[in-house]
Design goal:
Mean pLDDT of chain A: 96
Oligomer: homodimer
Number of helices of chain A: 9
Structural class of chain A: alpha/beta
Radius of gyration of chain A: 22 Å
Amino acid sequence: MLKIVLVGTGNVASHLLAIFLETKGIAVVQVFGRNKEALKAFSSYVPTTANLENVVPSDIYLIAVSDKAIATVAKTLEAREGIVAHTSGSVPLEVLPQNRAGVFYPLQTFTLGKKLDFKTIPICIEAKTQQDFNTLTNLAKLLSHHVHHITSEQRKKLHLAAVFANNFSNHLFQMAAQLCEAEKLPFELLKPLIFETAEKLHHLSPKEAQTGPARRNDLETMQKHLTELESPLQRKIYQLLSESIKATYEKKL
Amino acid sequence: MLKIVLVGTGNVASHLLAIFLETKGIAVVQVFGRNKEALKAFSSYVPTTANLENVVPSDIYLIAVSDKAIATVAKTLEAREGIVAHTSGSVPLEVLPQNRAGVFYPLQTFTLGKKLDFKTIPICIEAKTQQDFNTLTNLAKLLSHHVHHITSEQRKKLHLAAVFANNFSNHLFQMAAQLCEAEKLPFELLKPLIFETAEKLHHLSPKEAQTGPARRNDLETMQKHLTELESPLQRKIYQLLSESIKATYEKKL
């Protein structure tokens, strides 16, 4: 039985608690967080504390707090036995001062209250020692079929790639929604297209899946589209992404 | 029984033939296309012809050819009885010279050989007369639960929105894949994130779903990301999309 103290009371902590609670071989012995109000949501399931001195001994202290707070929080746990691991995509392992330190990064976007199938979520593991790497890997394998050894350098790039794949694509969906709204068209119209755009990647690489006016260098349609866009920022985005698509396929020749 | 002559032998024509063949109340009486080689794939299912003079009488002539060719193809069918309708997102209805003209636009991205659930695909209908509008609507309702009356002006904007939602987001996926590749990381790692980014829209609007450094105005992370991006074009895209995300939420205040 792996004992875990979960540190943090945000969105990621709440998703991790939910999956830990339903997974055999894991015991969440405590949730530790500064925000007493937020702790309340956790206290129906496990013991909680807002007081560092009351933090109980554990095999793993799993830090799920904002990137900026990780180093500070880790420092307060410096004297503890057990592994201290954070769950961030962009913070290097070295930020943790202890020797028994690791990273346990589930590569997914978590929505409060929306349950996810953890088995499909890639979990990226890193640790300062082989033994702790093995322990964190074993923990991850209890949750997911996709456990990977990813270095801090790789994780940094992976996190950057995730910004393109998730944050930026979502923003494009938002711009599309805005264009619909301006014509009093329901955004629902675009949802099957959006789902299929993602779904397609089961069958084709994004490079193979690319379609549209920029892909076929259809200057006439692109020119028309630019005149239809009222926002100068949207026009710039249209131009830049079209230029980038064209450049991608010209390189191929 | 609605008789249809399908005009064109490309990707959309092939998807339409497949769904028409399995739908009661629809009879594809012929496929008409200039490309004899491409016609072969259709000839195992329905009569085909490459010769305009041999095109048989029909209730509907459904044109699924490239945007640029629609006007020319429609002109060759001018003397026919029956409705002439095109399937394009960006071509106005007026491009069709006949009075009995319409638009039958399935808003989806079609991949050769990949079957889709047509019931979920929005079909956008427009016609010059009420009667033909009704006929095309009835045809669409045989295939899909989502049939909409969309004007040429609206369809133009919808098609533009689809470029953002599909073409551009796919390009972002491709950039993410490229960043993975450079670190020898499998693109598979990002797929659950991409699927969830789309899936989330069942529960939240894209405006609500937005996360990431630009959303929380995390200048430090954004600055780090910019130094990690080697391609100047990718840096420009990162900056512009981040700027656009920030602007979206500043407006809200």
